[in-house]
Q: What sequence folds into this?
């Protein structure tokens, strides 16, 4: 069913895009879609809603750039060339930066326009108020996600909502105030949460649409980030408002935790080594994973709270995710596939940061080390008939980046550590565009992340024991010893190990760096002179956007 929903989402974005035309043409083309003629049926609104999803799948976001940027800059990942590791490509003139900006404004425009039309277009036969509300709830939850990325990536980009959707494209737009983004995304989610179905209430063909649990998890995450990005930066972290925001986050996470829809994918008896690995890898695989005795569900499984949907259906010739393709470019860039660019490699420091005390039988360190990294001798597929049902060879399947930089350890079990999350099994299917058009869904929020964010919120509020219990629930899934206390160090370590290579760490480090109590030392993390405090916490606003707005839109500090 995943192929079906992805196909509809991508086709919808193509249809919506087809409605764009030259403003100066006076002759109306009766066969062309326009803003005035399009929103005439319930199906028109459904197509518009579907197009709202595709911005997350775009090349500028999860289709490539999210992992190429945030996934590269963190200290646990090595890029093929040092310029990206040293943030050299993070500049105002970067086309890649512009792609991320563009993708987020595709999303913001489409969601705002849909909300406006839902409240503006009069009654349509068969289009009930209940369905209208459901569409609006999805659009508002998606818009909240776009607001979240815009304010945490760009700090003060252009702001608008359904009441101020740009209509004059010759007008010069200026920076929004960050509080506008934080306030409106909270308002949007407060509308969406009670009006969205639970995950189990969606029909199979609609699996992948945003749920009440997904919206609640996003609300919790957004309020946690707001504490650092807004309150700590403005010196109001001790205010009643800051505490209220943290309490909102706490309650939102509890709604997810107590809702009965989500849980960790547990390692099943007899808990063989393969059971540990398959249970963990099921959260980043595009196919269900078997052990000797069990089968672990993968995409949209019980641990998945919010997931960007991909497939390998070829919509039309081209290579643009979220537009011409239904898949992503990630396997092409980062996997150990022989035809990939192999741009990413695991920094050996991460492997050696995994605990070695109290580990379950069959492992010499935390099982997550071996579920996150390929090491010499690992099989790369589950199908004996697949070409990648063979051993991982770092001389073939990586570019040995760490070795070339002299970063290896003397007792290292592999010449190089390959990326295993999202790339086990390696996507290589005869008759497809593999490794292009990767069908692997990208997990935006999974339940382990919810538990760890809840632990952090409780630490900030003053833990009553439930925060530590949540953190230890994540450790218990892999039978690692419980952390004795809820500390900053415990939170940082658990997020580092559990969520490795899922593109959370850069955003974690940035938000923690606003608060000196977290002790983020950028020179120790990235090296001397790489991260400039007061500059690199945010992306630069693309210079093309500043130019097209004739200077009304101002650049972020330091750029």
A:
């Amino acid at each position: 069913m995943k192929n079906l929903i992805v196909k509809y989402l991508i086709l919808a974005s193509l249809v919506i895009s087809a409605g764009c035309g030259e403003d100066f043409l006076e002759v109306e083309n009766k066969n062309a879609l326009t803003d005035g003629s399009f929103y005439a049926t319930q199906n028109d609104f459904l197509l518009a809603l579907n197009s709202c999803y595709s911005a997350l799948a775009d090349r500028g976001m999860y289709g490539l750039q999210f992992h190429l940027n945030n996934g590269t800059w963190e200290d646990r990942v090595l890029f093929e060339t040092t310029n990206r590791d040293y943030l050299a490509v993070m500049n105002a003139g970067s086309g890649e930066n512009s792609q991320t900006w563009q993708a987020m404004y595709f999303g913001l425009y489409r969601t705002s326009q849909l909300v406006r039309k839902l409240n503006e277009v009069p009654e349509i036969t068969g289009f009930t108020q209940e369905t209208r509300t459901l569409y609006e709830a999805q659009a508002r939850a998606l818009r909240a996600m776009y607001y979240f990325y815009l304010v945490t990536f760009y700090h003060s980009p252009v702001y608008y909502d359904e009441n101020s959707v740009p209509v004059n494209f010759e007008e010069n737009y200026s920076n929004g105030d960050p509080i506008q983004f934080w306030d409106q995304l909270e308002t949007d989610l407060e509308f969406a949460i009670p009006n969205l179905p639970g995950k189990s209430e969606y029909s199979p063909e609609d699996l992948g649409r945003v749920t009440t649990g997904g919206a609640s998890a996003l609300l919790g995450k957004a309020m946690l980030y707001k504490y650092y990005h807004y309150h700590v930066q403005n010196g109001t972290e001790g205010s009643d408002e800051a505490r209220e925001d943290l309490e909102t986050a706490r309650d939102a996470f509890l709604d997810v935790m107590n809702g009965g829809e989500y849980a960790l994918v547990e390692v099943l008896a007899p808990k063989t080594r393969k059971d540990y690995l398959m249970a963990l890898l099921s959260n980043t695989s595009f196919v269900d994973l078997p052990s000797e005795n069990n089968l672990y569900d993968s995409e949209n499984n019980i641990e998945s709270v919010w997931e960007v949907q991909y497939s390998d259906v070829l919509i039309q010739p081209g290579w643009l995710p979220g537009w011409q393709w239904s898949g992503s470019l990630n396997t092409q860039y980062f996997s150990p596939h022989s035809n990939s660019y192999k741009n990413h490699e695991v920094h050996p420091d991460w492997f050696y940061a995994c605990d070695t005390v109290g580990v379950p039988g069959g492992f010499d360190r935390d099982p997550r080390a071996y579920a996150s990294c390929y090491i010499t001798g690992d099989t790369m597929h589950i199908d004996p008939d697949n070409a990648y049902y063979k051993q991982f060879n770092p001389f073939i399947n990586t570019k040995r980046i760490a070795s070339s930089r002299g970063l290896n350890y003397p007792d290292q079990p592999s010449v190089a550590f390959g990326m295993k999350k999202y790339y086990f099994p390696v996507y290589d299917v005869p008759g497809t565009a593999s490794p292009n058009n990767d069908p692997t869904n990208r997990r935006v929020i999974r339940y382990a992340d919810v538990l760890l964010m809840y632990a952090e919120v409780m630490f900030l509020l003053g833990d009553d024991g439930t925060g530590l219990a949540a953190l230890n629930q994540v450790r218990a899934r892999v039978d690692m010893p419980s952390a004795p206390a809820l500390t900053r160090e415990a939170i940082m370590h658990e997020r580092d190990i559990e969520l490795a290579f899922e593109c959370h760490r850069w955003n974690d480090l940035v938000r923690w760096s606003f608060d000196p109590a977290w002790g983020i030392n950028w020179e120790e993390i990235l090296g001397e002179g790489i991260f400039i405090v007061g500059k690199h916490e945010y992306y630069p606003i693309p210079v093309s956007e500043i130019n097209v707005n004739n200077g009304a839109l101002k650049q972020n500090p330091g750029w």
